[in-house]
Structure formats: structure tokens, C-alpha cells
Amino acid sequence: MSPPGNRTRVALPRGQSAAGGRRMGNRQAGYYPPSALGNRQGGRGFTLIETLLSTVIVAVMFVAALNTLGASRVTQLKAALIGQGRMLAEALMAEILPQHYEEPDGACVFGREAGELETSRAAYDDVDDYQGWSESPPVTCEGTVLPDAAHWTRSVTVAWVDPLNPRQVSGAETGVKRITVVAAFREVPQATVVALKAAY
Ligand SMILES: [Ca+2]
Ligand SMILES: [Ca+2]
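Above are the sequence and the calcium ion SMILES. Below is the predicted complex in C-alpha cell form.
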């Protein structure tokens, strides 16, 4: 330990003070005081333009994500409506097809015979009895409203068609009847089921 007042002196190069030597030593060691870092241009924060630009980018990405999510949801809803419409239409077709080709009791007409009501399918016994049938909401043959079928409509058309070309409707008996059932949600058709009934 050096006695008081007897400090060891280090010889410095000519023109360099002790304070200057400490500064140079610190810089060579990679040390910069915080105050110096804060004043350097490379260490500053985001500018207003940069902040606004990043905000716009995030907003655009957020809107794009919402649009994708919304489109996916719409697709799911459309598929669900088509599925439910097909189920409703097929259920009614399953009731119609087992019926007779024409009225089995007495004189037959194309359409409802005597005693068969416009508002109830309970007495229907041949396929053309269903011509012009329309119901909302859908009901069973006995008139019970089907569950989860609010805003749905089922309608039926029956027509004679050319046996060789079922797309061609005929005004006279051909031996083949085409039955079409349409299920619509809020008056927008969602599913159509078509079947043929032959007299032989
Ligand atoms: Ca009938
Ligand atoms: Ca009939």
C-alpha cells in the first residue's frame, strides 16, 4: 500500500490528458454511457409514421381475418340449410312414393278425389293427390308440426311425363308421373327431390 501523498504516476503519450485516456479506454472496451446511447440516432424509438404504418397493417390483417371467418361461417350455414332442406323434402317424398299410381277406390281424377282435403294429407291415397300441396311449417301426414322447421315450406308438383324423356311434361296420361318436392327456407329453395312413379 502506497503511503498517502505518494501516488504512482503513469506516463501518458504526449498530448493526451488523463481524462482523455479514460474516455478512450472506455470506448475501446465497448462501453458507452446511457446518456450517449440515448442521444445516438440508431437507438431512438418508433416515429409517428412507423407507428401509424404498423397500425394500418394490423388493421388490414384483422379485417382480412374477419372476412375469412365470416365467409367460413356463411358456408357452414348454407350447407346446414341444404342438408335440412334435403331431409325435409326426402321425408315428404318417402310418404308420397308408396301411394298408388292413381285412385284405387272408384273414379279417379288427376288431383284430389272427393273427400280428400286441400288442408290435410290424411286421406291421400294416390300420388297425384299431392299435386299443388304446399305447407308452412312442414307437418306430418297427421298434421303434427315437425320440430325445428320454422320458416320452412314444402311444396309438391305432380305431372305426367314422357317415359322416354321424363323432363318432358305431357298433358295426357302417359303411364309415368313425375313427382317434385321442393323445400324452401324463408321462401328460398334449398333442396329439390324428384322421383318417378310408373303405372306398371
Ligand atoms: Ca286419391
Ligand atoms: Ca288422385
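The longest strand covers residues 152-162.
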